[in-house]
Each structure stands twice: as structure tokens, then as C-alpha cells.
Design a protein that fits this description.
Layout lengths: L6 H7 L9 E5 L13 H7 L4 E7 L17 E2 L6 E4 L12 H4 L4 E4 L11 H12 L6 E4 L36 H11 L6 E4 L27 H10 L19 E4 L4 H10 L2 H6 L4 E8 L11 E8 L7 H15 L19 H6 L3 H8 L4 H17 L8
Parallel strand pairs: 1-2, 1-5, 2-4, 5-6, 6-7
Antiparallel strand pairs: 3-4, 8-10, 9-10
Helix pairs in contact: 4-5, 6-9
Amino acid sequence: MSRVLTGADRLAAEGAARLRGQRVGLVCNQSTVIHPSLEHLADLLHAAQGVELAALFAPEHGLRGEAQDMESVGSTRDPVTGLPVHSLYGSDEDSLAPRAEDLEGLDRLVFDVQDIGTRYYTFAATLLLCMRRAAPLGLPVLVLDRPNPLGGGQVRGGTVAPGFESFVGLYPVPVRHGLSVGELALWLQRELVPECELEVLFCEGWRRADYFDATGLTFVPPSPNMPTLDTAIVYPGQCLIEGTELSEGRGTTRPFELFGAPGLDGHRLHAALRSEGGPAGRATLEGAVLREASFRPMFQKHAGRTCGGLFLHVTDRERFDPFRFGLHLIHTVATCFPEVFAWREKAYEFVEEIPAIDLLTGSAAFREAVEAGRALDAIFAEQEEAEAAFRSAREAFLHYS
């Protein structure tokens, strides 16, 4: 297996020559590493001759990834380089974009964070907000590309309807868009920020069909609850559980693969998932096996309480559709176990007036179907139309074969 070169690897190999003579800001976190040494790019640029690394910008979870989801992070100073670290995930919605005064004096803003290929994973939304702030300042943006860990073949899930935009749906693409973050940046530029001066340093050697474990690269967990590639594979569907009061397994060693709630009977849930919705429901289990499980989260939902539920084992990545499974799972629990089911009503990603599940799915259609007891056939059909439309629209931005 030959090793892929990321954009950061290519930048390092050339001695950061394209940044020479420039004052640079770097959007980064713990995943911003060079292979195979795993040296942090900030350390390399800080030592690079002729390059002035002036500031670091940290997305959700902070510069070193120690903060949990939706945990406010303040600006600070990096103890290694001594540089200021401007938080892009503070206490309100305004904190999600860099301040103009923090960008002033820079010659280039570099973005290098490992994405997970799922719309509601917030790092690409941070990229879009950086592009929007950089554009009126005439500040060029350089994206150092990394492989999409889920491969670039599959496109799954509906898009975002007008009025349902949020930090987990800031741009109208399917949940699983099948683009690298560099390809997505090109799409964002043309569709949303055409005035942004954008350059993408693409990977070398990545093939579109390859999952991360075929790249020869080391998987550095890009956030506290994304520890493995297995987590990333189920995430496009299991993140939907955040829109409910079910536990998505945060506070355990296997977030998103484990799910359940206190008082939920995993054995009965397993049976219901196999039968609820007839053949259409059973089809959402293709490529996966469910195992009855009990777990006790140490923090977040149901902390310290024993939850009954299931563990999701993916056996065939190409056949399994995590997004449709996530919809089917929530529909089944709401229908068959109403005594333990509830939607999340608290604010979600700084939005209070729209239910979290609507922000995640991109509209009210799924929630309304669940509440009315309707089957999901119409929802799946609409998603297939959105998937086909985006599959065609993205062709102009595909760099990798």
C-alpha cells in the first residue's frame, strides 16, 4: 500500500516555499500533522525560514482537541510556539468566524484540519466562515487538502432547506457529500463566496474510492468523540441521535457505535428494527449487524445511568447506508418506545427556535413524518432526488479519479 501525500505533506516537502515572504495565519487542531513523523504543521511553519507564522485559529474542540462538543473555548496562547490562538468556537454565534482585526496584517490564511466527509461535522463550516471573512479583506485562503475518510464515492442524505441553515448545515449539500475538504472548498467558493481568492493544495495518490485505512496515513482523532475510522463510518447517521434525548454513546469508549437510553430494552429494539417498516425498514440494516448492549455514559446524556440499547457493527461499508439507518432508528424508537423517546428541545449549536433534529436533517419533513406516524418512503424518495442532483452538480469540482 503506497502512502498518500496530504496537502500539508506536500507543503512540508517543498519547505513551505509557496509561503516564503508571507505573514501567515493557520486554522488548525491536533489533526494538522505531517506524515510520517506526525510533527504538527504549526511547529514546522514556525521554524520555516522566510515564513512568519503570526497566529493560530482553532475550530470547535480547541487547538489540541480537548474540549467536548458545544463547549465554549476561549482564545489563548500556544505554549509551544508562543503564538496567539484565536478561538473559532466561543460562547455565541459571532465567535464562529475569525474577527477582522485578527486577520489584519496577514498575507495568507491557511486551513488544514482533517474533515470527516459529513455535512454536520463543523470544520468545513468553519472554513466557509473563514472564506467569508477573508474575502472582503482581499486575504487569500490556502486549503491543504486531506482525504475524505469515508471515500468519495457515496452521496447520501438530503440537503438543507432555506431557513434551516446553522453551524451543522451552513451550506446546501447532502449529509454525506463524497468530497474532500479541498473539493468542497472549490464548491463553496463558486456557490457562496465567489469573491474569495482560493488556492487548494491537493493530495497526491488518493483515489476517490479509498477509505482512510487504504491511504497509509495515520488517523489522528480530529475531535474527542471521533476516535476511529469505525466511528466516522457510522457518524453520518448516528449523529442524528443528537437531535433526540437518546444517548449517542458520548461518555463511553465507543461513541456513535453505541446508542440507547435508560429503560430501553435492546432485545425488543433489535426486533423492532428488523420488522418496523416492512422490507424498506429491513433494507436499512444491509451491511450491518446489531448487537444488544448495555452501557453507562460517564458524562453528557444520562451520565452515570445504565442505558439499554445496541452496538452497531458495520460489515460491508458499501452496502450500509448510515444516514437512512439513523432515520429508521429514530422513527422506530419514537413509534415503538414512546415512553423513552423525546426530541432534544434545548438550544443546539447556538440555535434555539428550530429543533435540533430539523437542523441536522435540513428541514422539518422528517420530524413531522415521525410525529404523524407516517412511513419514511416519501422522505427516502426526496433524498434520492437530492442525492442525484448533487452527484451531477459536483462533477465540476472532482479532482481525484
